[in-house]
Specification:
The complex is a heterodimer. Chain A contains 5 helices and no strands. Helix content of chain A is 69%, strand content 0%. Classes of the chains: A mainly alpha, B alpha/beta. Chains A and B meet through helix 3 and helix 4 of A and helix 17 of B.
């Protein structure tokens, strides 16, 4: 799988995961929208979500990432970076 | 008749060096901001106790300050914490100077009734239950008395209880709503200036009434994060389990205050997690057992100190984060306590930490003792009752050492690296719980 297709796959998988978890269509949410605002999450709910994304995608975000992942774009970049590291 | 109920909330730290530090370490005032942004459950309860033919308007101090002119009412009721009581008195004086009668109430007024009487046509001491309906009728007849004693017992009985007017909060941008399920706390810590000071004993609201309030509050918000306005929610474990089973279907996320005995009950922890309890605030108070001696009359906290780390770990392993609260400046504390507390917090894995300075609120046994011992820096310092300003002579260090130690510790524990470490640790715990439940 190419880097581009992995990125697309993560994008779809992440949106599907969020759609299922929050029972709302996430397909049209902008990559740069704040998930905290979009999903009306408090900071603790945001942290729990990140732990669930780790669990779902079998990755481990750094402490730095955990506190900075605020948008779909941020999360996808982190997932791709971790995926790339795991593969290399 | 139109009654205006005005809530004063919000606390501003006085010490300029702490104010400066707070700008760079915003986490350290986070809990204070949360409290300041909560609606006044006391006043919407007062509204509920008002006869239905009387119009009630609920205002928060920010709304009053935003207007140059005072809004017109036939009667004004003001409730305030100690730190803002002088502002409350000033507002009361303004209303009274234009001929509007004022009633003052709340914890501070209950504990300092003589002082409050100078700024009010009437005061309500203790809760409004058992006092407010009579006060309104007396006002209608032009026979307002100077002081009304609210009930200190059976405050949630059918005789006194009315469901708070959550409808008055409609359309306001709260990120948390509060519901009270109990009043008082059996631990009776020397420094406590909370609801135990206005009750004779621990008062428990029925599960039925508590759940009905939550449902009523849910109808006025689309952000159902609830904060129980209790000082120690899970005193009665049987009641607690019945309560959390009843709210489990409501899909809440909620917060409350507890003592460490919560960790002793696996079934309750499981039920709490299932009901959406996301955080408990626990007064751990001191990093050493020695520091807890004499805090409460039965030395209960001292006896439980050995369990602290295990208990925090156990509660958090259920997906319920712990906000650990500590007080600096206790009589056993020395200059070494700052590093001891820093080390304890580091080892504890607490997601959130609240460190404050011991504060002798007026009317507490602590205030009486420090006054007796000649250790109060001033006799009247209400605007400095911020939980961050030092108002007394510590036993084993100077005031300056305590202030400097606070600043040092705040910088140690509230910096960005420490915050990241704590959230990474909690995500590990939460992730382990997800993996375990999936297995």
């Amino acid at each position: 799988m190419t880097a581009h297709s992995t990125e697309q796959s993560h994008d779809t998988e992440l949106r599907n995961f969020l759609t299922s978890k929050f029972d709302r269509d996430m397909s049209d949410v902008s990559l740069d929208a704040s998930l905290i605002e979009e999903l009306q999450l408090d900071s603790l709910a945001g942290l729990e979500l990140m732990a669930e994304i780790e669990n779902k995608f079998d990755v481990y975000f750094s402490a730095e990432h955990l506190s900075e992942l605020r948008t779909l774009s941020n999360i996808l970049e982190a997932l791709d970076e971790l995926n790339w590291r795991a593969a290399s | 008749m139109k009654i205006g109920l005005i809530a004063m909330s919000g606390v501003r730290v006085k010490n300029p060096e702490l104010v400066k530090l707070g700008v760079t370490l915003p986490q350290f005032v986070n809990r204070g901001k949360v409290i300041a942004s909560l609606p006044s459950l006391g006043l919407i309860t007062v509204a509920a106790l008002t006869p239905p033919d009387v119009e009630v308007v609920y205002r928060e101090i920010g709304e009053v300050k935003a207007s140059d002119a005072l809004e017109s009412f036939d009667l004004v009721g003001i409730s305030s914490f100690t730190a803002q009581i002088d502002e409350a008195y000033a507002l009361a004086d303004r209303y009274r100077s234009r001929g509007t009668p004022v009633v003052l109430g709340g914890l501070h007024v209950s504990l300092m009734p003589d002082e409050a009487t100078a700024h009010a046509d009437a005061i309500v001491v203790n809760g409004a239950e058992g006092a407010w309906p009579e006060l309104v009728e007396d006002f209608r007849r032009g026979q307002l008395k100077q002081c009304y004693d609210g009930a200190r017992n059976k405050v949630f009985s059918d005789q006194h209880y009315r469901m708070p007017r959550f409808d008055l909060l409609q359309g306001r941008p709260y990120n948390r709503l509060t519901v009270q399920t109990s009043r008082g706390c059996p631990l009776a810590c020397e420094f406590c200036a909370a609801s135990m000071r206005i009750t004779d004993c621990f008062q428990q609201k029925s599960v039925e009434k508590s759940v009905a309030e939550i449902k009523a509050a849910m109808s006025v918000t689309d952000q159902p994060f609830f904060e129980l306005a209790d000082d120690n929610t899970f005193v009665n474990k049987k009641w607690s389990k019945e309560f959390v089973r009843a709210i489990r279907p409501l899909g809440l996320r909620w917060f409350t205050e507890s003592d460490i005995s919560l960790a002793d009950d696996d079934e309750l922890l499981r039920l709490l997690a299932e009901s959406g309890c996301k955080q408990v605030l626990i007064g751990l108070e001191s990093p050493t057992a020695e520091g807890l001696k004499g805090i409460d009359p039965h030395n209960w906290k001292h006896q439980r100190h050995g369990d602290y780390l295990r208990a925090i770990d156990k509660i958090q392993s259920h997906g319920i984060s712990v906000n650990g609260c500590f007080i600096l400046g206790l009589d056993s504390h020395t200059p070494e306590t700052f590093t001891e507390l820093g080390d304890f917090i580091d080892r504890s894995g607490l997601l959130e930490v609240q460190v404050t300075v011991q504060t002798p609120f007026p009317g507490t046994p602590l205030y009486a003792r420090l006054k007796r011992e000649g250790r109060l820096l001033q006799e009247r310092f209400w605007d400095r009752c911020t939980l961050f300003d030092v108002n007394f002579q510590p036993k084993n260090m100077s005031v300056e050492t305590l202030e400097a130690g606070l600043r040092w510790l705040f910088a140690e524990i509230y910096n960005e690296d420490e915050r990241k470490k704590r959230i990474r640790h909690y995500a590990d715990i939460y992730g382990a719980r997800l993996s375990a439940s999936a297995a």
